3-ketoacyl-CoA synthase (Triticum turgidum subsp. durum), 506 residues
Amino acid sequence: MGSSPHVKFLMMVSRLVVDNFFGVFAVAVAAAVVGRAWLIRPEEILDQMLTLPRVYVFLAVILAAALEKMRRMRRLRDVYLVEYGCFRPKPCYRTPFATCLEHAHLMPYLVDEESVAFAMRLLERSGLGEETCVPDAYHYMPPDRSLKASRDEAELVMFAAVDDVFAKTAVIKPADIDVLIVNCSIFTPVPVFADMVVNKYKLRSDVKIMNLSGMGCSAGLVSVGLARKILQVAPADTRVLIVSTEILSSQYYVGTERAMLLPNCLFRMGAAAMILSNSPSEARFRLRRVVRTVTAARDADYRCVFQEEDDKGNTGIRLSKDLATTAGYALKNNIAAFGPLVLPATEQLLVALSLLKRRLLRGRAKVRLYRPDFRTAFEHICIHAGGRGVIDEVQDGLGLSDDDVEASRMTLHRFGNTSSSSVLYELAYLEAKGRMKKDDRVWMISFGAGFDCNSVSWECVKPAGDADGPWAECIARYPVQLPEIDKDIRTTLASTVKVWGNEFRR
Ligand SMILES: CC(C)(COP(=O)(O)OP(=O)(O)OC[C@H]1O[C@@H](n2cnc3c(N)ncnc32)[C@H](O)[C@@H]1OP(=O)(O)O)[C@@H](O)C(=O)NCCC(=O)NCCSC(=O)CC(=O)O
């Protein structure tokens, strides 16, 4: 239905009024007060004040000062992202599909043809490209799952990310870090990774350290939430360093259970480091909202990402077939709390009206609830690059366009599922493409074992000066055209598995 310019204008005005209701209300009240005060002469006001007993005036002044002091003391400080950095893998860590296939066949373990074909089919359909990287340990035959290999991988990826963030924030030195939070889900050595970072960068002896483990891919945003709680009440100029990673070396699954083979296909090496502060100087983003939703009370959700042994005793992570649906459910719960904090009033009003309509027409007609348009609240959305299925689910659930999910799909294609660091690679993609502008709002969504959904929103204070970062060498090639995924087509690589298998056996 075409609408006339008058209707468009009226709609624009009503949107402005509804979205800025409190502002409009405050202006109206202020206007009324000024209007009334206008009628009273200043001498009258002064006379009335002078008739008050002195002690009342004195008490009023003291009370006002005390209230102001209390307000200042209770006010939570704003939190800022000063800078972030990501590990950029060298080409020697690449694992093209053909290498994975060859590797699977040369593996000394009893990996049957069917499992190899299944893994290759998943790989081709997963949304990962040919340039994703795995640690050295995976390039060995058999994979090196030793503690040393895991430590080597941890040092490589974490230190590269931390070096990157310190290189970008020339004014902040390791000695300026007051709090350190490191998160890694599936591997936790003794001493923990946080100690490893303290030792490498010789952080101060009074640094507060925390090491989060077992929280899956959402742990990076959980760390941001934790840092925010600390910074809101810490003295001014407190700095928190967060390091988010997943160490894969010890996790290569060597059995034949399909649900446990999936992580081998999806997870790739990666790490990100962030410096957060409660001082706005040098800040690049302002932290706006953090909302965490835990659905672990539901048994199916709790077992959705589960580390265990298969019936032959091989340890691995079992990913449920229903993971994408579980993620959709968790997101629904999450946005029920997050939406009211970020959506403009018009969108909230439309949701409320559709709820009311549904209630009034209950039993008589089926009313679809209004799906709020989150693009009215955010210019950019970074969805955890958990796998093609996860991104599809969020895109469908929120009604997003292909452009809205480009950063997530391209990150999955170039870097794979890098777990808790993936949303930072996505932010780096947007910046490398030069799409981030001052005042732009960003929504990061992550999911993780538990099950857990996290939303974090940022506002850009200062866009990146250049496109340096993990995308520096390849950004010109992106976005790439992703292959059409047809349910009925058995892909080429998977169908060549049998032929290759026979060749290898000869
Ligand atoms: C794996 C996929 C790319 C496959 O896509 P397809 O288009 O091929 O879809 P599909 O679902 O029909 O799957 C193809 C075949 O794989 C099988 N299949 C799929 N997922 C499976 C699973 N988890 N366990 C066992 N089998 C599985 C299907 O039964 C089917 O087999 P057949 O053909 O024989 O019928 C997609 O399903 C996907 O992205 N899923 C989500 C991946 C995921 O769990 N990511 C989160 C990681 S955890 C994370 O990020 C958070 C954390 O760790 O904390």
Remarks:
- Confidence is low (pLDDT under 50) at residues 488-506.
- The radius of gyration is 27 Å.
